Amino acid sequence: MIGYSTVTQKGQITIPAVIRRELGLVAGEKVVIRKEQHGVSVAPAPDFFSLGGSLKASKPYSVKSSRKAAKELLGKRHEKVA
Known about the structure:
Blueprint (H helix, E strand, L loop, with lengths): L16 H7 L7 E6 L2 E6 L18 H19 L1
Antiparallel strand pairs: 1-2
């Protein structure tokens, strides 16, 4: 599919509505813009939850241990300020 747009003085473009619908883009959604050899590509940015499992960890992820670590870190920062 081909769509045309004009670059504004601020460097902005409008993605044509038919392409936004096909990509499932809605107002306020983030996109990824990649420079390619002969132009650019625009795609919806992956959301946080779609990234699950994309990195290999040395040990399994635990919400409980993450909260505990965050509390310890914040406690240490608070001690330094006081």
